[in-house]
Amino acid sequence: MSRQIIPYAFIAPAMLLLLAFGVLPIAVALLVSLTDLDLAGLGDWAGAGYVGLDNYRSLLADSAFWQAMANTGVYTVLGVPAVVVTSLAVALLLNRSEGRFFRALRAFYFVPAVTAIVAVSLVWGYLYNTQFGLLNHLLGVAGLPPVRWLTDPALVKPSVAVVAVWRGTALNIIIFLAALKAIPREYLEAAALDGASELRRITSIVLPLLRFAIVFVTVTTVIAWLQIFDEPYVLTKGGPLGASTSVSLFLYQQGFSSGRFGYAGAGTLVLFLVIAAVTLLQVRARRLDAS
Known about the structure:
Elements: H1 2-33, H2 39-43, H3 54-60, H4 63-94, H5 100-109, H6 111-114, H7 117-128, H8 134-141, H9 156-181, H10 185-193, H11 198-209, H12 211-226, H13 230-235, H14 247-257, H15 261-290
Helix pairs in contact: 1-15, 3-15, 4-9, 4-12, 4-14, 9-12, 10-11, 12-15, 14-15
């Protein structure tokens, strides 16, 4: 009997953390979304009144919320393919050679994942600066006019997405490298002896064997980009005119800046349902493809 309990004892800490920081916050958000809880209500919960689904009705009629949803969709469409393709391409290049230099290079590519977002925002803010930024300086050297990277509504989303892609590739490169190391070298050697080119070996052997890793990275990247917050917050605060406001940033502004916690709770549940639906669709597509 005791041996049967051992596996559950190992997973118990992870399950407790999941319940405490995953399930419980969603349940609290659901309860709060049914009230008009504000800053005053935090001091006295009895002052929070039950409003039913009014927060959801107001949310679905809020043009700012739909703008944030559209912005998040643009971020996801721009960022997810860029992150997955870039991470896989870099991992394939790093996997070709061994030695101290390439081991150091692999560590170098992981730096963005462990760099504080404040430091990242300062560096990229200087790069994007309209008057003194490096990017506009290079454009000036080429005889081109300066670009308003973070103040032009048409350019701000791609500009923010570039920073998020730069940060998002780091961990995924490590995941792809680990998956590449697990591929038996005998398959690649046999294909090389048969005269297969490197491109053919990648397309016919490497990519099919990386299918699970690619699906995993894609699913986790989609979830991360649907919750994108750091880059829009530190670079633009959601401006100009809400052109870079993501859903997460919108909810933060409503909850912690405006004190509308019930309204923000309703938005949190809507975002959770969107993420769950998109994730289930991806898992479903993966199962159909595997069958």
